[in-house]
Design brief:
alpha+beta; UDP-n-acetylglucosamine1-carboxyvinyl-transferase, Chain; four-stranded mixed β-sheet; 23 strands; about 25% strand
Length: about 450
């Protein structure tokens, strides 16, 4: 496994530019397969999730060419296979996202059970319920799901709970379906709007309701064409660098990000006493005085994003008082707390008292387990100590890296391949802010 050797205790200061969004880039590579014409994607991050998606897309018939350091040209003249290869498909959550292009152009898809982070079960029932209304037959065997259609048709479907990825898959499936599709209680994340922008540039007819952004209308078209699109910046990466500034008592100018798309986070840290300065495409985040404890609850857009809570938990360990985090989106997303506790953090898990868990939480009740806690109290400030640790999760990996930078002394972090799933050259960019990280890399077996 690759690892970081981190010398912590240094305040991080300077300027950093944000790369393209992980959660938009790999999905837009997939969306590009809806047409036989070339699609140019600009601001694509160099991360392993993108490389895995490229590998699957190429296997299915896509031709992908690099355009400079952060650009790709994707052209899929024909679909050469409708079966997602089990090896790469099981490594990533992307396998079922190919549903739209393959159903639209090949009439079928076979994919393995989704992989990705260890966050608890990723239910597909909400997606499958909608697809069945769109004339898709769904079956499964011990290893895979098999989806087939004799022709996609539009539908009117209401998600029981908003689902970011399921909304995107339905968009890609409905854009070339016959007739009209209406998605109600759709997710509202900016990455979804970025996908809509790409699909419309390709000739799609998609719009959100002017009065209710959770309603999306799709008028199916017979075919799509090529386009050129710049991918939205990664708001998770922006929040990570903001947390790096606050946990090390530094000041970082975060460039190439629209502050509005991380507005909920920025308002939260402002309430704690952090200084922020919003610009048009940049934001300055600075530690100026001891931060006050705060309570946060994760939720769908425009709530506090679930992807933020791991790195934000580190900031709470350095804040004065008792903070709490309640996780409503995933049944199990506190893997980072154990790592923080090993470094000296003081925390206590609890179960929130809620009137109706089935409506309060965004995950399906059957995904929950008695051993899963959905709340944690964090007592601060804590003096963090260096440690040797092994990570197995993207956001927990980023959190551990920032925690090692906060602690005085030398830490070793193994398994940083997980960090490379979502962060491009994280160690190098942190070094540019004053960090001291030695990156010992083992060559990845995933190639482009």
């Amino acid at each position: 496994m690759s690892k970081y050797i981190v010398k912590g205790g240094i305040s991080l200061n300077g300027e950093v530019s944000i790369r393209g969004a992980k959660n938009a880039s790999y999905k837009q590579i997939i969306a590009s397969m809806l047409t036989a014409e070339p699609v140019e994607l600009i601001n694509v991050p160099q991360i392993s999730d993108v490389r895995i998606t490229e590998s699957i897309a190429t296997f299915l018939g896509a031709e992908i060419k690099e355009m400079g350091e952060h650009g790709l040209m994707v052209q899929t003249k024909t679909i050469s296979s409708s079966v997602i290869p089990s090896g790469t498909g099981e490594k990533s959550r992307t396998s079922f996202i190919f549903t739209g292009p393959l159903l639209a152009r090949a009439g079928e898809i076979t994919f393995p059970s989704p992989g990705g982070d260890k966050l608890g079960e990723r239910p597909l029932d909400r997606l499958f319920a909608c697809l069945k209304q769109m004339n898709v037959e769904i079956s499964e065997n011990e290893e895979s799901f098999i989806l087939k259609t004799s022709g996609l048709v539009g539908t009117d479907y209401t998600f029981p709970k908003p689902s970011h990825t399921a909304t995107e898959v339905v968009l890609m499936t409905a854009v070339m379906a016959s007739g009209e599709t209406v998605i109600r209680n759709a997710a509202c994340e900016p990455e979804i709007d970025d996908l809509i922008e790409l699909l419309n540039l390709m000739g799609g007819k998609i719009k959100r309701d002017d009065n209710d952004q959770s309603i999306i209308y799709i008028s199916g078209v017979k075919s799509l064409h090529g386009a050129s699109h710049q991918i939205i910046s990664d708001r998770n990466e922006a929040v990570t660098f903001a947390c790096a500034a606050l946990s090390t008592k530094g000041s970082i100018s975060i460039m190439r990000i629209k502050p509005k798309i991380i507005g909920t986070f920025l308002k939260t840290i402002e309430a704690m006493g952090a200084k922020t300065n919003w610009g048009k495409d940049e934001v300055l985040v600075s530690w100026v005085e001891p931060l006050k404890a705060i309570d946060v609850v994760t939720g769908p857009e425009p709530g506090f994003m679930t992807d933020w809570q791991a790195v934000f938990s580190l900031v709470l360990t350095q804040s004065v008082g008792v903070s709490s985090v309640i996780e409503r989106v995933f049944p199990s997303r506190f893997q980072h707390i154990k790592l923080l506790n090993q470094m000296g953090a003081k925390t206590k898990f609890f179960q929130p008292e809620v009137a109706d868990p089935t409506t309060y939480y965004q995950f399906n009740p059957e995904s929950d387990k008695p051993e899963y806690f959905h709340g944690v109290k964090i007592y601060g400030p804590s003096k963090l100590l260096p440690t040797n640790s092994t990570i197995a999760d993207l956001r927990a990996g980023a959190t551990t890296t920032l925690a090692a930078l906060t602690a005085e002394g030398t830490s070793e972090i193994e398994g940083v391949e997980f960090i490379e799933r979502g962060y491009e050259k994280l160690a190098e960019r942190l070094d540019s802010l004053g960090a001291k990280i030695e990156y010992i890399k083992v060559q990845s077996k995933v190639s482009k």
